[in-house]
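seq:
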Amino acid sequence: MPRSTSSRRKNKWQQPPRDLSDSVAGMRVSRDLPDGSWSVQKVAGNSHGKVYVCPGCGQDVPSSSSHIVAWRQEAGHGIDVGVDSRRHWHTRCFQRFR
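struct:
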């Protein structure tokens, strides 16, 4: 029997986009701190196996533990730096040093 040329599934590109504002709203927040505005995002532990270095204490932050990813929203010279400058912090280190 020949294969049908039409798919029985709906094409995901023809569906209207989902509203993600509710699901993302609690993930990333903007905080005004003495050294500028920061974007702060809580990260749940995962099994990627990566290890980051906390800029607050200099110790390892394994990706398997929950932690904070934060970055300045603007550089000192007014150039937007975005997520390229994000750093992984221990939650307590970020609260202590920021």
